[in-house]
Design brief:
Number of helices: 3
Number of strands: 0
Distance between the termini: 82 Å
Structural class: mainly alpha
Largest sheet: none
Mean pLDDT: 79
Length: 147
Amino acid sequence: MTACMTDPFTAAAMPFSQQTEEMRTQLRTQSEAFWNFQDRLLDHVERMSHAWIERRHEGVRAAMKAAFAICNSADPAEALQEYMQWAGGSVERLTRDAVDAQAYVTGMSDLVLGATHKVMHGPSEAGRADIMTPTDGDAPTPVQTAA
């Protein structure tokens, strides 16, 4: 054996060095997952915001058109028809807002779960179960019926 192999300091430093490398690897993995998550989150929010703003622009243009048509209508029935078309478009835009919001929440859940799995190297709780899967430790949820 060489003197280096029998040196107590070197023998103690080897496990420390291995632990340090493992910690750096874990930190690197967590850092990459965190910043990738941030980037994907911003993309997700940007798409949602852009669609919402476009619908608001549509609504303003439709309201201006309806206001012009109502003010220039020949009779109340024509004015009411213009108003109803605008109101129908408003309901349609609000419905698209609701559908987008639902997709947004689903997308956010997927992002968070994906980031958690990436950092945890698989399902959460050290690979025992996915956080969305009930376990024996979870309290039972009562079933609600419609009255």
